Amino acid sequence: MYFKSSPVRKRVVEKELWQRKGLNMKAIIAINKKNYIGLNDSLPWRSSEDLAHFKKMTMGTKVLVGRVTYEAMPKLKGREFIVVGKGYNTLEEGLAQNPDWLIGGKKLYESAIHLCSELHISVIDDESIGDTLAPDLDNFAGLAAKVFKYSFKTNKNNV
Ligand SMILES: NC(=O)c1ccc[n+]([C@@H]2O[C@H](COP(=O)([O-])OP(=O)(O)OC[C@H]3O[C@@H](n4cnc5c(N)ncnc54)[C@H](OP(=O)(O)O)[C@@H]3O)[C@@H](O)[C@H]2O)c1
Fold first, then answer.
1. DSSP string, 91-148
2. Which CATH superfamily is domain 24-158 in?
3. 66 CB less than 6 Å from ligand 1?
4. Cα of 1 to ligand 1 centre, how many Å?
5. Is the whole model's pTM more than 0.90, yes or no?
6. Number of other residues whose CB lies within 10 A of the CB of residue 137
7. Is residue 81 a contact partner of residue 97, using CB atoms and an 8 Å limit?
8. How far, in Å, from the CA of 103 to the mean position of ligand 1?
9. Whole-angstrom Cα distance, residue 14 to residue 8?
10. Non-local CB neighbours of 39 within 8 Å, separated by 6+ positions
11. Is 67 in the pocket of ligand 1 (CB under 6 A)?
12. Tell me: the pLDDT tens digits for 92-123?
């Protein structure tokens, strides 16, 4: 039971509206044991297992990405990048292109993760300290997103 004007209710309504327009977006995120997702605009760990998982899930699809993550990441083949940020798309314009996956980073997760139908979380066996913590995923519980969890190891010596 939500209050009419509560932030949760607002997110539920927003999700319903986008789904009615045909949006069927899932989120994919990797989080380490200390709850970090980023360091220096990159990942705090090296995990070939998780990269292979990311590739398998997103290959041949359209992915929605924040400007900071996009500009820092290698140009991955086989995926169509819909970038949100100055000089690219607004969030609305990005969503209107019906992305299959929301791939981060933090600001974009915080703006759009509640619109996703599925949440795929890679838990990385890594305890390093980053500079970017995971968004509050509990915030989005109860919004009917299915949650999938995977466990991945880092490479030997994290290289
Ligand atoms: N572990 C993981 O799964 C994962 C996945 C992705 C990224 N990351 C990490 O996350 C960190 C980057 O996160 P971040 O928050 O700094 O960057 P980000 O979300 O990738 O990009 C932020 C930028 O995207 C644009 N943006 C985001 N939400 C917007 C909205 N609602 N409306 C309009 N524009 C919006 C803005 O661009 P403008 O500044 O141009 O306005 C904003 O400054 C990096 O360390 C990266 O490696 C981790």
1. HHHHHHT--SEE---HHHHHHHGGG-SEEEEEEEE-----SEEPP-GGGGTTS--EEE
2. Dihydrofolate Reductase, subunit A (3.40.430.10)
3. yes
4. 32
5. yes
6. 17
7. no
8. 9
9. 10
10. 128, 129, 130, 131, 132
11. yes
12. 999 999 999 999 999 999 999 999 999 999 99
